[in-house]
Structure formats: C-alpha cells, structure tokens
C-alpha cells in the first residue's frame, strides 16, 4: 500500500523561522536546493521520510512534533474560530473544515489571521467601552503595553540570555557563589542589612563604598533573586541593550521597562537554568510548588519561569500568566497559550484567580470554558510581596497559570477533583454572550437588554432575545 504523502509546508516554514534561518541556510544544511525548500513550504512537494529524519537530526527537534499534520492543527484552530457566536447561524460541518485546512491551507491561514485581528479589535472596543462613553484613548503609546507586546513577540523566550545564564549558573550554584562572583569580578561586597539602614529599599548599589546592600527582611528566594538581578545589571548590559534596540519601542519609558524585564529574565534563568527547569517541570508534572522547592525560589518565580519554556526543539507547555490584586487590577501579564484577555474592563468573577483570596497560599486548579467552546486549565494561588518585620507593609495578590486543556494531562492538576465539568467563564462581560449569567456586570456588545415588563428572571442585563 502506498504511503500517504506528507505535506507540512507551514510547519516547515515555522520551524525555519524559529531557528532564524533563510531558505538558503536550510538548503545548505540539508544539502538540497533552496528552490526545493520553497516548494516544500508551499506544499508543492511532500516531505519524504528521509527528509523528515534529516530535519530532526540536523536541528535537534522532535520528529513527532515535525511529523504532526499541520492540516490537523489548522483544522482545529479553524473549528475553534468558527465556534464564535459571530458564526452561530452558519452550518459548516467538521469534514468541510478539515477539507479547507488540507486543500486550501493558505486560505485557512488568511482566515485565521483575519479572525485574530477581529478578536483583537473586539477586545479593544470592549476596553474603550469600559473606560466610559465619550472617553478617547490616550494619544501617547502605553509603554507597558509595548513591552508586553515585545515579550509576546518573542514568546517570552530569549535563548541567548538563557545560554548566558546557564553558563554563569555552573560557576555559582548557590548564593555564596553569586556573592563571590560579584566580589571577584566587580570588586563589590554583598551585605545583608536591616530595614532601617536600607530605608525601605530591597537592594542598593552603594557606589562610593563599593558594596551591594540587600534588605535582610527578604526571604531566601528574594535574596537570591536580588543578587542574581544585580549580576544581570553588572554583566548583561550589552546583550540586553542589543535586544532592546531591536524592539519597536517608541518611548524611553518602554525601553526602561524592557531592560528591567530582560534583567529579571536573566536573573531567573540563573536561579532556574533552562534545561534543568524543563526537565524538572516534565518530571514533576508541572507541580509549581515542587518546582519552586527544588530551585529554592518562590511560587511566583517558578510560575513565571514556566512561561518562558518555548525554545525551539525544547518546549514546555505554553502558559498564559496573570497577576492581579483583590480589586482585579492587573500588575503582570505574560501572553501565551492563545488565551484571550481583555486589557481592561475586569475579568470574569467566575475565574478561580479571583477565588483564591479566600484560601491564601492554597493552589486551586480549575478547568474553564470560554463562550467559543475552547477549554483551558487554570492554576491559581495567592502570593505576597513585602519585606521587613512586624508592621511592615505587605500586599497579597493572586497569580494564575493557564494553558490549553489539551495539555492538562501533562500536569499534576489534571488529577484535581471537581474538574470533570468545566466552569463557563467569559473574557470580559462586554465580550461574553452567555445568557442567564448572575455574575454579569455589563451587557455584551451588540445585544439589546430585555425590557421584562411582565417577567423578571433575576438576571442582570438579560438579553432581549432570551
């Protein structure tokens, strides 16, 4: 029986771009012509078994990942897009969706890009509505949004910084090693001082006395991170400046925030080297608390690091990360996992990130379902920030790690009781079309509110079509 031809043009192109290669570079590595690479990427030539094996061995990527049908993933993404309420009155059978993905992959990709743009603009409209009628968006670009976009464009993964940090970590496996490196290489003594001398600071570079002061009120994880962060400032300026220079950042504020983010990235990579943390994550089934204990870091540091494991050829689960306070204000967000999130207007109160404040420092796992049918696993817990003794100011926030439900079985949290049925949530009330929601705080865009002159359902903002 003849083997089915394997066409994987979009996947091959994505792998090539992730590796930073041109068609000519890849052709030279594989000892074929650049025109043949172009034909395979356009699905005008199949990828043979020999070529698939050569790709895997040359670039050290998983052959199973390479061989996975691109049309299957495209069909899955198309089916998810078509579950949006916008297409509720269109009957498009699953077989037709599969045929489109297989026979017209370029058209399918164009449709998915258009739908992504629609969703983005829809979210922006909801954000604008949440700001109040008559208000106009700020004329100046938001530096925080720019930096989030910069990190998202890189999937929050910077392999060069990871490699540099891994090399440094081999020479300084503990806090004492980091202190010695700062002393020997930079002539700076590292000391831990009381809050009175620090005047509320967590770290201070005393330039004239040639010393680095760290607040002794920090927990051990905080001390280690601050020393590693100081090393990033001292040693990684050139590499970080090069990354910032290549980013499309239009203000000095954005560049400052980007440098801080990359310095923190390098510091976390020293405490949790990429290969070691990926191996631990897979071995421990992404148990964030156990990962934090193994690397002697905080829960938030471990959760944050898990979002960075997207290196080509050595990827972990793609996660979306969010940190909020009790009022729902977002203080940190790392985009990933394809999880939609409105930038303002409030998140859904049914999401477990808002429930964990009732059970401090306890991990909660929740399967959630969005209105389009997509399901995600959400892992949430409270974290605390602050330092010093009795009476010192502290703040409690909640963090959530969210991944697509298809990855849930790779985590320990898939075994949590109560996850058989997903909790229906919305991205924000302005975008959620779910009827009869008692938690709704605003009507969705494009729906009329039912007058209910003779009947009251008790549901706020009930739809006219109910």
Q: Could you explain the architecture of this structure?
A:
- The protein is of the alpha+beta class.
- It folds into five domains: 60 residues, lambda repressor-like DNA-binding domains (434 Repressor (Amino-terminal Domain)), CATH 1.10.260; 60 residues, no CATH class; 129 residues, Orthogonal Bundle (Arc Repressor Mutant, subunit A), CATH 1.10.10; 131 residues, no CATH class; 32 residues, no CATH class.
- The protein is built from 18 helices and eleven strands.
- It is globular.
- About 2% of the residues have low confidence.
User: What's the main sheet like?
Assistant: 6 strands, mixed
In total, how many domains does the architecture comprise?
A: 5
Order of helices and strands: HHHHHHHHHHHEHEEHHHHHHEEEEEEEE
Strand runs, count: 11
Distance between the termini: 55 Å
Please give the share of residues in helix: 40-55%
Taking all Cα atoms into account, the compactness measure Rg is 25 Å
- Order of strands across the main sheet: 7-6-10-9-8-11
Rough shape? globular
Low-confidence stretches: 132-139
Q: What structural category do the secondary elements indicate?
A: alpha+beta
Count the DSSP helices. 18
Q: What fraction of the residues are assigned to beta strands by DSSP? A: 5-15%
Average pLDDT metric: 84
């Amino acid at each position: 029986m003849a083997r089915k031809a394997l066409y994987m043009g979009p996947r091959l192109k994505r792998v090539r771009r992730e590796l930073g290669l041109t068609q000519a570079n890849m052709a030279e590595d594989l000892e074929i012509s650049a025109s043949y690479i172009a034909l395979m990427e356009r699905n005008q030539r199949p990828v043979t078994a020999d070529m698939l094996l050569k790709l895997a061995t040359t670039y050290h990527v998983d052959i199973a990942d390479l061989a996975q049908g691109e049309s299957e993933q495209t069909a899955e993404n198309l089916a998810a897009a078509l579950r949006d309420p916008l297409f509720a009155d269109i009957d498009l059978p699953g077989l037709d969706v599969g045929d489109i993905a297989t026979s017209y992959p370029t058209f399918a990709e164009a449709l998915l890009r258009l739908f992504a743009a629609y969703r983005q603009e829809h979210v922006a409209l909801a954000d604008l509505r949440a700001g109040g009628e008559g208000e106009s968006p700020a004329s100046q670009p938001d530096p925080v949004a720019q930096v989030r976009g910069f990190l998202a464009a890189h999937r929050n993964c910077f392999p060069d910084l990871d490699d540099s940090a891994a090399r440094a970590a081999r020479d300084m496996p503990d806090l004492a090693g980091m202190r010695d490196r700062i002393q020997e290489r930079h002539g700076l003594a590292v000391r831990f001082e009381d809050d009175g001398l620090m005047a509320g600071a967590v770290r201070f570079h005393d330039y004239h006395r040639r010393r680095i002061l760290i607040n002794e009120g920090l927990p051990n994880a905080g001390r280690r991170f601050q020393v590693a962060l100081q090393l990033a400032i001292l040693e990684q300026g050139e590499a970080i400046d090069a990354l910032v220079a290549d980013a499309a950042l239009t203000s000095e504020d954005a560049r400052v925030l980007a440098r801080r983010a990359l310095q923190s990235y390098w510091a976390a990579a020293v405490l949790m080297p990429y290969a070691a943390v990926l191996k631990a994550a897979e071995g421990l089934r992404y148990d964030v608390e156990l990962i934090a204990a193994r690397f002697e870091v905080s829960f938030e540091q471990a959760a944050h690091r898990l979002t960075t494991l997207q290196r080509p050829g050595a990827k972990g689960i793609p996660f979306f990360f969010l940190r909020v306070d009790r009022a729902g204000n977002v203080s940190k967000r790392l985009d990933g996992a394809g999880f939609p999130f409105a930038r303002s207007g409030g998140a859904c109160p049914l999401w477990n990130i808002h429930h964990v404040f009732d059970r401090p420092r306890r991990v909660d796992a929740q399967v959630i379902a969005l209105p389009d049918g997509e399901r995600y696993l959400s892992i949430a817990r409270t974290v605390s920030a602050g330092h010093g003794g009795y009476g010192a100011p502290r703040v409690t926030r909640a963090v959530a790690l969210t991944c697509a439900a298809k990855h849930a079985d790779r985590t320990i949290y898939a075994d949590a009781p109560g996850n058989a049925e997903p909790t229906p949530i919305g991205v924000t009330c302005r975008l959620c079309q779910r009827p009869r929601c008692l938690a709704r705080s605003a009507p969705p865009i494009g729906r009329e509110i039912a007058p209910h002159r003779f009947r009251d359902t008790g549901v706020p903002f009930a739809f006219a079509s109910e």
